[in-house]
Amino acid sequence: EDQVTQSPEALRLQEGESSSLNCSYTVSGLRGLFWYRQDPGKGPEFLFTLYSAGEEKEKERLKATLTKKESFLHITAPKPEDSATYLCAVPSGGSYIPTFGRGTSLIVHP
Amino acid sequence: DTGVSQNPRHKITKRGQNVTFRCDPISEHNRLYWYRQTLGQGPEFLTYFQNEAQLEKSRLLSDRFSAERPKGSFSTLEIQRTEQGDSAMYLCASSLAGLELFFGEGSRLTVL
Question: Are A28 and A92 contacting, i.e. CB atoms less than 8 angstroms apart?
Answer without folding.
Answer: no
